Amino acid sequence: MVISLNLILAGLRLGLKNRQVGEKWVYDDCSYLCKSLTIFIDT
Question: Which structural domain, as residue segments, surrounds residue 17?
Fold first, then answer.
């Protein structure tokens, strides 16, 4: 559980940085995080 929370926080930081570049980057980060979290939960 701690690992997944750290992933979320890291992803949020990446998303905030990339937000200056463009909204698509934020969306890509979120979708990537969701996929990795889903895999983490399923295992």
Answer: 2-42
